[in-house]
Amino acid sequence: MVVITLTDCPPKVRGDLSQWLLEVSTGVFVGNLNKRVREKLWKRVCENLKTGRACLVYSANNEQRLEFETFGSTWSPLDFDGIKLIKRPLTANNSATHQSLEDGYSSAAKYRKAKNIQKAIAKKDSDLYVVLDLETTGLNVEKDEIIEVGALLIKNTEIDNSFTAMIDVGHIPKEISKITGITEEMLKNQGKTKQEVIEDFYEFIHNKTIVGYNIAFDLRV
Asked: What is the CA radius of gyration of the chain?
């Protein structure tokens, strides 16, 4: 399966894509292509898309079962050990989203992930950036809550600082406690209020670039 999404799509590009893919919504093309055709179509998109943005997603034989590419966007893919991450700059435009955060980051496995992420990002820049991970009471961004926030400040591929905090949300589903190792007693004894943790976390990240696995989920919850 191949999915290509575009904004400000020139008629010439739309014509090329329509020969091979079905446009199911404005600027959204889907279909099944072999590797050769897919690569040629993506090359045509990148060569002819002047002011718009494009994203290519296709099935792949890796851990995530997919690969993706972007063009004309400030969001850039990073590939390490067969796992794709998105590097998304944190700007003033994201502040409203951050202020609405109420539920969940995790520190589970953050050191291992941070180490792998360092290798990929170090090739592109040496600026400060923050690697974050989260633990929540579930995967529903509408009702589940943050129970732990974990973040690492990376400077020139080295861990420069770290941040961890638990949030006392009261009840935790038993299956989540088994997965995370976090209990209601731990949250009661070590946890802070959501507002306290959010304020401390904002102070830690400031305006730095944030990197993480499935970062879109982290920024929505």
From this structure: 20
pTM: 0.42
Mutual orientation of helices 35-48 and 11-18 as an angle, nearest 10°? Answer: 170
Distance CA 208, CA 49 (A): 30
Average pLDDT over residues 103-131: 59
Give the other-Cβ count within 10 Å of 70's Cβ. 16
Question: For 158, phi and psi rounded to 5 degrees?
Answer: -115, 145
Element (H, E) at 69: strand 66-71
Q: 82, 81, 74, 69: which is closest to 41 by C-alpha?
A: 69
Q: CA 212, CA 103: separation in Å to the nearest integer?
A: 16
Task: Quote the pLDDT of residue 102.
Answer: 42
Please identify which residue in the block is written with the tokens 């034989």.
Answer: 61
